[in-house]
């Protein structure tokens, strides 16, 4: 696997022990596990780290830091130990993506996924049903499309959960994430069959679904990740129209709600969101999407952390999960921005 002359060997050179100057500790490799890993005890906290990967498949170090208590350095060290011991993996494709999109420069949050060994521990400790899927092989085959897609969903979940936990603590009000289902681990739960007017049956599987509990009410949301969708804007909008049939046939009642739902489309940039909304409002064939049910936001509108300069050429990361609860969602019915509580 190569990109502009980049090979496995050059990745090893760039990521392995650097700067072997006198009196300076060598940097540990980010690709190769330690030949002599530190002793590891599987505490409840480390089981919780494995559990995040079981339910979300992929997560970067930022996700663990906003979800779990403890210092950043403590969490990073724990992840390193779990990786060295073979319970979690670091997909190779992420380093190629870093070279491709950033030239290999700058700080990169490491992406993790679960291994066969980690899954076996969860089956024993949490009584999960073991599967025959070879996770180690799948991890090796992970490509850029899957990594971008799954990581976008996991970061959305982490930001939402952390923001609700934070707001509940600040207000002493019942802000909770009642459930979160994500495609692949929860595919059967998300799968729904619809009957079209011509008698044909069609299956719809959202990328994720969650229920938000606020002091006044509960809200059901479906999530569609626009990134890497094939076929362009109009093909995607035609897919969204299936949710009107979903509503008419009251399929949402399986989530124990009678108030309907909203569909959140997550796109890479604000420009993409504007273009989709414009296409809805200017094309007659899309008029059925001109409803408050359909919401759009971009990955630029929410984040887990922001950088704050502390001195020249030195920055620290400040948690900013509350951005997901701010008015960052647009709809085709007005020019206002809305928050999830509306």
Question: Can you put this structure into words, describing what you see?
Answer:
There is one protein chain. The protein is an alpha+beta fold. It has 2 domains: 8-16 and 26-142, Winged helix-like DNA-binding domain superfamily/Winged helix DNA-binding domain (Arc Repressor Mutant, subunit A, Orthogonal Bundle), CATH 1.10.10.10; 172-338. The protein contains 12 helices and 14 strands. It has a 5-stranded mixed sheet with strand order 4-7-8-9-10, with helices on both faces. It is globular, with a radius of gyration of 22 Å. The N and C termini lie far apart (47 Å).
Individual helix count? 12
Count of β-strands: 14
Look at the structure and give the mean pLDDT. Answer: 88
The description of the largest β-sheet is: 5 strands, mixed
Give the tags.
342 residues; alpha+beta; Arc Repressor Mutant, subunit A; 2 domains; three-stranded antiparallel beta sheet; 12 helices; 38% helix
